[in-house]
Amino acid sequence: MGSSSKNIEQAQECCYLEWMSLQSQRIPELKQLLAQRRSHGDEDNDNKLRELTGKIIGDFKNYAAKRADLAHRCSSNYYTPTWNSPLENALIWMGGCRPSSFFRLVYALCGSQTEIRVTQFLRNIDGYESS
């Protein structure tokens, strides 16, 4: 069990480092395109910016999908990755990104429907018709 957990942690860390590597490659290009846009403002530059922005968003989607896949195997690292420093983890928590926030979001999205269904279920047991 310990070895498997360590392998998952390593896979999650590699996933993170891969994403950060992609970001470090894309950021200088993004800064350059933004500087050119300020000085020139041409339409070709806008198309390049849109393309690069699409790549950056795609990179993040891939990273999020990989993390979600790895979270199925070990969910605790999803909330406080082991490769973060204690300061980074503290800032994540102070910033409001806590596991309880995720549970509240799920409840907000699904909870109201659950309450309605329980009420309808109880009405059906009591012999009342639900509308």
UniProtKB/TrEMBL annotation:
The gene is DOG1. Pfam families: DOG1. Residues 9-131 form the DOG1 domain. The lineage of its organism: Eukaryota, Viridiplantae, Streptophyta, Embryophyta, Tracheophyta. GO terms for molecular function: sequence-specific DNA binding. This is DOG1. It comes from Arabidopsis thaliana (Mouse-ear cress). PROSITE patterns: DOG1. GO terms for biological process: DNA-templated transcription. It comes from the Eukaryota.
